[in-house]
Amino acid sequence: MNNRTHQVCVSGGGPAGLMLGYLLARQGVDVVVLEKHADFLRDFRGDTIHPATLEIFHELGLAEGLLALPHQKTERISLTLSGETIPIADFTHLPVRHPFVAMMPQWDLLDFLADEARKFPNFHLLMSTQARGLIETGGRVTGLVAEGPGGRIEIHAGLVVAADGRGSQLRDVSGLALEDIGAPVDVFWMRLERKPDETNESLGRITEDGFLVLINRGDYWQCALPLPKGDADNIRAQGLPAFRDRIRRIAPFLGSAPDALTDWDQVKLLTVQVNHMPKWWRPGFLCIGDAAHAMSPVGGVGINLAVQDAVAAARILGAHLNAGQVPDDALAKIQKRRDWPARMVQRAQVAAHRFVLVPAITAKGPLKVPFGLRFFQWFPLLRRLPARAIGLGLRPEHWTLAD
Questions:
Q1: CB pairs under 8 A, 24+ apart, for 149-154?
Q2: For 27-70, what is each residue's pLDDT tens digit?
Q3: Phi, psi of 326, rounded to the nearest 5 degrees
Q4: How are beta strands 285-287 and 151-162 bridged, if at all?
Q5: Which residue ranges form the domains of the chain, and what is each CATH number?
Q6: Is 139 left (phi over 0), alpha (psi -120 to 50) or beta?
Q7: By percentage, how much of the chain surpasses pLDDT 70?
Q8: Which of 17, 18, 31, 198 has the CB geometry, 3.0–4.6 Å to 8, for a possible disulfide?
Q9: CA distance to 84, 201, 340, per residue, from 334 (Å)
Q10: What is the pTM of this model?
């Protein structure tokens, strides 16, 4: 069995874990990040980098390098309801350096962050290494047990951070509670060909056949089809031809693109969870990102809230770690700062499920444009409000260039 000692051990090499690892290493902290997979190549993960997150990369001096990677810009979002298009959000007016949503494969973002973090000798990334349990001493978490390519590893650390997503194993063994808020929908994800002459804007289309979200990814659309929770097997039982026909009826402009769906393996099911930890920490242990608050895909904000959790945690913890200790009140301060925006976003998502998604996917006849949406047509300035809510959020984090 191998033994290692670090100041901080982070479980999970997603956006939250790698951003936290990078920012702590940048402050001189000895940190190790564990990623259970051998690489970051997983499809249909959150690929949206919102303006608030791009602003953090700008403040860190990393935005130019990040945006040199292939990506698509989404500056506006619209909704097409029964053939009528309604503009909803306009990001171009946001007071940030990059007023758009960058659509980038998450593996490119993670590879970029990992490469930047490796420039610090005090940063360590262990791939194919999964946390299995916690080490406790006198009621305080003092490390974790992991399984890696060489077998069992014990990692001793002054702080263990669970950034391992909605299925966090460390959260589950920590003894901390998790409240299930619930979500009435799941989502089918798929890729469909995008022709060069099609619109550049990402959009949602609602008809009596359902709700289809189309995200511009250059030569293809990343598509999401929400469905009532538990209905996936019924849809599969109707067969792929019926599924392809349904996609065509919702978005006729796709033409023959749905014909490329020849196997259900091309249609990935995301089981939507919305939950929240009443308490994110205990002595020596902290949860952030989806481990602390799993988000619905509504708004695509999960990755951005996770990154902002990491930024707040790194800013609050850096000085304490360099002084050799992590007091409980520092962990409580992180939750106090990040708990409220996460809960508010989840409330908005639950409302969107109830008043938009569920009516859209269960409608039995033609749908009419709600009167409230007409205001976005009539008063373009109103489009800045949802853009600010989605693009910046309620409590955006910042990192000074002089850190």
A1: 150/2, 151/1, 151/2, 152/1, 152/2, 153/1, 153/2, 153/3, 153/4, 153/126, 153/129, 154/1, 154/2, 154/3, 154/4
A2: 999 999 999 999 987 765 668 899 999 999 999 999 999 999 99
A3: -125, 95
A4: parallel
A5: 1-42+107-180+274-356 (3.50.50.60), 185-228+230-270 (3.30.9.30)
A6: left
A7: 98
A8: 31
A9: 44, 36, 11
A10: 0.94
Q: DSSP class of residue 383?
A: G
d(CA 382, CA 120): 45
Where are the extended beta strands (E) located within 179-322?
179-180, 185-193, 202-207, 210-216, 220-228, 268-270, 275-276, 281-282, 285-287
CA 230 to CA 336: how far, in whole Å? 35
Place of tokens 């959000």: 89
- Residues of the chain short of pLDDT 70, as ranges, are 1, 43-46, 401-403
**In degrees rounded to 5, what are phi and psi of residue 139?**
85, 0
Closest CA to 342 of 389, 295, 310: 295
What Cα–Cα distance (Å) separates residue 264 from each residue in 41, 146, 243, 256, 315?
Answer: 20, 34, 10, 17, 44
pLDDT, residue 401, reads 44
For residue 46, the model assigns a pLDDT of 66
